[in-house]
């Protein structure tokens, strides 16, 4: 099996952008946000358990998870957040293990926003790669997206690990405060480093 790197970072830090740059260089990418979307789309594996654990109002007419409603709920109610995570995290982890096992790339990167908060991937990953940027850059990048105002972004940041703590727990760090060419340069260097890791 390929060596597995866990890529994480706060909201809007540039995880998806960074992962795409690694993919362009030949890394295998497994994105837990994409898996979570699949699990909660109409007919997704998580829907029956979510329907049972939460009110029917969280399920859309076509049978998928109503993400907006769920986001509102888990901001207000930390028990609801724990309950949702209890359903989704084991399913996501199993899918990640399945996808990683199918890869034949020299190494794999799994993108996990709450990698350090949940600790779910401890036994699976070889190194923790943190994509870091200033809170200011996080807010301006995340609010550029539709439906995200500064208050919402700050509320999400408050549920995530602090920047200092995340950096303290990183094996590798990519600093994404500058432009894309600087990000590419760091990805090039990290890619060379990961290619040199012996498979395990
Ligand atoms: P989320 O936590 O919300 O999933 P993310 O960490 O995956 O976000 P991205 O989606 O990669 O972050 O980046 C957020 C936004 O910032 C995107 O619009 C992306 O194009 C932009 N962005 C990321 N890095 C840079 C950069 N170095 N220069 C300019 N724009 C950037």
Describe the structure.
This protein is α/β, with parallel strands linked by helices and 200 residues long. It has one domain: 3-Layer(aba) Sandwich (Rossmann fold), CATH 3.40.50.300. It contains 10 helices and 5 strands; from the N terminus they run E-H-E-H-H-H-H-E-H-E-H-H-H-E-H. The chain has helices at 15-24, 32-40, 47-53, 67-76, 78-102, 115-118, 135-143, 150-159, 163-168, 180-195, and strands at residues 3-8, 28-31, 107-111, 127-132, 172-175. The protein has a 5-stranded parallel sheet with strand order 2-3-1-4-5, sandwiched between helices. The mean pLDDT is 94. The structure holds adenosine-5'-triphosphate.
Structural key phrases:
200 residues, alpha/beta, Rossmann fold, five-stranded parallel beta sheet, 10 helices, binds adenosine-5'-triphosphate
What's the alpha carbon Rg, rounded to whole Å?
A: 17 Å
Instruction: Estimate the mean pLDDT confidence.
Output: 94
Instruction: Based on Cα principal axes, name the global outline.
Output: globular
Structural class: alpha/beta
Which molecules are bound besides the chains?
A: adenosine-5'-triphosphate
Helix content: 40-55%
- Main β-sheet: number of strands, strand sense, barrel status? 5 strands, parallel
Beta content:
5-15%
CATH H-level superfamily:
P-loop containing nucleotide triphosphate hydrolases
Tell me the name of the CATH class: Alpha Beta
Unreliable spans are none
In the CATH hierarchy, what is the architecture at level 2? 3-Layer(aba) Sandwich
What is the count of helical runs?
10
Tell how many strands the DSSP assignment holds. Answer: 5
């Amino acid at each position: 099996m390929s060596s597995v790197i866990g890529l994480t970072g706060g909201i809007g830090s540039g995880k998806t952008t960074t992962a795409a740059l690694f993919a362009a260089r030949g890394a295998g990418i497994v994105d837990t946000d994409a898996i979570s979307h699949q699990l909660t789309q109409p007919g997704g594996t998580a829907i029956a358990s979510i329907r049972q654990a939460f009110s029917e109002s969280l399920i859309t007419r076509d049978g998928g998870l109503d993400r907006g409603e769920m986001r509102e709920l888990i901001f207000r109610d930390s028990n609801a957040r724990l309950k949702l995570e209890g359903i989704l995290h084991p399913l996501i982890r199993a899918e990640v293990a399945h996808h990683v096992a199918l890869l034949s790339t020299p190494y794999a990167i799994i993108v996990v926003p709450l990698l350090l908060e949940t600790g779910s991937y401890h036994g699976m990953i070889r190194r923790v790669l943190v994509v870091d940027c200033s809170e200011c850059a996080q807010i301006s990048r995340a609010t550029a997206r539709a439906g995200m105002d500064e208050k919402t972004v700050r509320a999400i940041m408050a549920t995530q690990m602090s920047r200092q703590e995340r950096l303290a727990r990183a094996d590798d760090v990519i600093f994404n405060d500058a432009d894309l060419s600087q990000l590419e340069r760091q990805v090039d260097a990290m890619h060379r480093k990961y290619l040199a890791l012996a498979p395990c």
